[in-house]
């Protein structure tokens, strides 16, 4: 069974080394084509961003925004979303808008 999220260190390293990088205000995404007919996503929120409660809140917001936007995306990509430290100040709608604009810049929309 294939999971629909990136979880192994080797998968993350491959996307970081071979994928393309798109940077926004609060987020950075790394994108690499995969051999599947669906997208896999991984999120990274560093410890410098805040305490565990804050990091988990940011991860939940990122995952929800990605879940909604995934319906409009081209399929067959591995995507890593890296949160910048300033994301603590952003609400859900700012995160959603930033992620959507990064997907447009990365040419991932249909």
Number of strands: 4
Do you know the CATH topology? Ribosomal Protein S5, domain 2
Which CATH first-tier class would you pick?
Answer: Alpha Beta
Distance separating the two termini: 27 Å
What is the gyration radius calculated from CA atoms? Answer: 13 Å
Determine the strand fraction and express it as a percent band. Answer: 15-25%
Low-confidence stretches: none
Could you estimate the helical fraction of the residues in percent? 25-40%
Tell me what the CATH architecture is: 2-Layer Sandwich
With helices defined by DSSP (H or I, 4 residues minimum), what is the helix count? 3
Strand order of the largest sheet: 1-2-4-3
Mean pLDDT score: 93
Could you explain the architecture of this structure?
- It is a single chain.
- With 110 residues, the protein is an alpha+beta fold.
- It has a single domain (9-105), classed as Ribosomal Protein S5, domain 2 (2-Layer Sandwich), CATH 3.30.230.
- The protein is built from three helices and four strands, in the order αβββαβα.
- A four-stranded mixed sheet has the order 1-2-4-3, sandwiched between helices.
- Strand 3 (40-45), helix 2 (52-69) and strand 4 (77-83) form a beta-alpha-beta unit.
- Helix 2 packs across helix 3.
């Amino acid at each position: 069974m294939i999971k629909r999220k990136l979880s192994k260190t080797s998968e993350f390293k491959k996307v970081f080394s071979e994928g393309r990088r798109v940077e926004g205000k609060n987020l950075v995404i790394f994108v690499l084509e995969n051999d599947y007919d669906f997208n896999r996503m991984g999120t990274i929120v560093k410890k410098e961003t805040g305490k565990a409660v804050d990091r988990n809140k940011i991860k939940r917001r990122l995952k929800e925004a990605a879940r909604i936007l995934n319906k409009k995306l081209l399929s067959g990509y591995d995507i890593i979303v890296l949160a910048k430290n300033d994301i603590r100040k952003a609400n859900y709608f700012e995160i959603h808008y930033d992620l959507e604009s990064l997907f447009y810049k990365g040419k991932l929309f249909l």
